[in-house]
Design a protein that fits this description.
10 strands, 2 domains, alpha/beta, six-stranded mixed sheet, four-stranded parallel sheet, Rossmann fold
């Protein structure tokens, strides 16, 4: 890790509000809709980031980060590391800014994500998951040059994501809790930075699959942990092999806990959103709903208000989506 990195610091509400104006015209203000489940179910609201132009929330952070680059940095080109959504976000923002873009992309990412990055003009360098995870820590990859935009450990990226938290508060000021899927941690850090600054009583929870739950383990142990039993799954946009120490510093003061769900619970959440609201969500975007339906939020004293679930993206291969619908049919 470069020695010149600035220390981790809180994301201030003023820079979040500045990001709102900066990303306008690139990212959209997504709707917050109630999921009608009937009596006996919690009041769940869905923040539909799958409706962004790249079908994922990462456009918010990418738009803010690229907008803050100098002219010289844009001329050099930008690059990032991604399983798909961050790469699409940076490619989209870079194309709008007239900057070349390279993405060190995980080779097992869904084809839909890889094809979309190429369509947005990004040059792809395909690598293994482990190589990508190491490059995130090194902030470098052999042969790739330009201005690096970190897909989660970046103040500007996080401030962009935090704009979502302000929208949630405007649309649902009575919310008791917000749940976000966790991969690198940029999404939940941003949302929590905004929510806790304005309404500290609102609980912010992480959701992770049991095949990749290093944040839950880190909370249990009180320090950033690795997850050696990590397994690849259709939940490719969340869950990691470890919690980066810098992201632990960011998340630990802001996040109230982590709910770990099974892949079967995640599949059923995907089907529920498709059936009840006609929403196409990728695996990571289904984790918060799966977590909300476990009842753990209420058991841990979050209050009786609405639970906001962030549907972080909808970039799932249609064959995978249809296969899950068939598997969960009853």
């Amino acid at each position: 890790m470069p020695a010149t990195l600035a220390p981790v610091r809180p994301i201030e509400i003023a820079e979040i509000r500045a990001a709102v104006a900066r990303i306008k015209g690139t990212a959209i203000r997504t709707p917050l809709v109630k999921l009608e489940l009937g009596a006996g179910f919690p009041d769940i609201r869905l923040k539909l980031e799958n409706l962004q132009p790249i079908n994922a929330y990462k456009l918010r952070g990418a738009a803010n980060a690229v907008a803050l680059l100098s002219d010289e940095e844009r001329k050099l080109g930008v690059w990032t590391i991604s399983a798909g959504n961050a790469g699409q976000g940076v490619a989209f923002a870079a194309r709008k800014a007239g900057a070349p873009c390279t993405v060190v992309a995980i080779e097992t990412a869904p084809k839909a994500k890889l094809e979309r990055m190429r369509a947005l003009g990004a040059k792809l360098v395909l690598v293994s998951y482990e190589e990508a995870w190491n490059a995130l820590d090194d902030r470098a990859y052999p042969g790739v040059e330009g201005t690096f935009v970190h897909p989660f450990d970046d103040d500007a990226f996080i401030a962009g994501h935090a704009t979502m938290g302000l929208e949630i508060l405007e649309d649902c000021p009575e919310a008791a809790a917000v749940i976000c899927g966790v991969g690198g941690g940029g999404l939940i850090t941003g949302v929590a930075s905004a929510v806790k600054a304005e309404k500290p009583a609102i609980k912010v929870w992480a959701a992770e699959p049991d095949t990749a739950a290093p944040f839950a383990r880190s909370l249990e142990m009180g320090s950033p942990q690795k997850y050696p039993e990590w397994q690849a799954s259709f939940v490719d946009g969340a869950g990691g092999q470890s919690v980066f120490p810098r992201m632990w510093e960011r998340m630990q003061p802001l996040v109230d806990g982590s709910i770990v769900v099974t892949l079967d619970q995640t599949r059923r959440a995907l089907r529920l959103m498709a059936e009840k609201a006609r929403i196409i969500a990728e695996g990571a975007g289904c984790l918060p709903l799966a977590a909300a339906l476990t009842g753990q939020i209420q058991q841990k004293g979050a209050g009786d208000g609405p639970i906001v679930c962030v549907v972080s993206g909808g970039n799932i291969d249609m064959t995978t989506f249809c296969d899950i619908l068939r598997e969960t049919a009853e």
